[in-house]
Amino acid sequence: MHSNYEVMAQYNRWMNQKLYAICAEIPDSKRKEDLGAFFKSIHGTLNHLLYGDRAWIGRFIGEPFAAKIGDELYEDFNELVVQREVTDLQIIEWSQKLSSEWLHQDFKYTSGVDGKTRILPAWVLVTHMFNHQTHHRGQLTTLLSQLEYNPGVTDLPFLPWLNTIS
C-alpha cells in the first residue's frame, strides 16, 4: 500500500522525466528565451520547480536550502537534469518515511515569498509542495505546446506503475 504522498512523489518524478526529455530536444537558446511566463522561460520555470522542491524538502528534513526564490540554480541544462533527478529521488525516499504523527503536527516555517513565519499542519505544507509542482508543470506544458512540442498524457492514472492494464 502506497500513501498518497508516495504516489505524488512517483508522479512528480515521472512527469519531470517526460518533460525534461522533451526539453532536451529544444535548443538551449530557445529554452532560455523569455516566452512571457511567470518565470519567463522554460529554463526559468524548470529552475523554479527545482528551487521550490529543494526549499520545501530542506524545511521538512531540517536542512534549509540557501537559495532565494527567482535564483537561477543551474545555468547548464545538463546539470539541471542531474540535479532534478537527485532531488526527485530524495523526495521519493522522504515520502516513503512519512508518518501520520509527523504529518499531523504543526510545522513552523518562514516564507521565501513574503518573509512571514507561519505555523500550519505539516500535511497542508506537504500537499502544497506537490500542488506547487503540478501548478508550474502546467505552465511548462503550455510553453511546450506553444512551441509545438507535445507533452503527451499528464494525468495521474497514467503513471506507469499504477497502470495494470496490459
Task: Report on the architecture of this protein.
55% of the residues lie in helices and 6% in strands. The chain contains 6 helices and 2 strands; from the N terminus they run αααααββα. Strands 1-2 form a two-stranded antiparallel ribbon. Helix 1 packs antiparallel against helix 4, helix 1 runs parallel beside helix 6 (122-146) and helix 3 runs parallel beside helix 4. The protein starts with a helix and ends in a 20-residue tail after the last helix.
Number of DSSP-assigned strands: 2
- Return residue spans where pLDDT drops below 50 for at least 5 consecutive residues: none
Distance between the termini: 21 Å
Structural class: mainly alpha
Q: Strand content of the residues, in percent?
A: 5-15%
C-alpha Rg, in Å?
Answer: 16 Å
- Mean of the pLDDT scores? 94
Main sheet overview: 2 strands, antiparallel
Strand order of the largest sheet: 1-2
DSSP helix fraction? 55-70%
Count of helical regions = 6
The string of secondary-structure elements, in order, is HHHHHEEH
Assign an overall shape: globular
Question: What's the structural blueprint in terms of helices and strands?
Answer:
Elements: H1 4-23, H2 28-31, H3 42-61, H4 77-95, H5 100-103, E1 106-110, E2 117-121, H6 122-146
Antiparallel strand pairs: 1-2
Helix pairs in contact: 1-4, 1-6, 3-4, 3-6
Task: Provide the descriptors you would attach to this structure in a database record.
6 helices; 2 strands
Can you describe this structure in just a few lines?
The protein is mainly alpha-helical and 166 residues long. It has helices at residues 4-23, 28-31, 42-61, 77-95, 100-103, 122-146; strands at 106-110, 117-121.
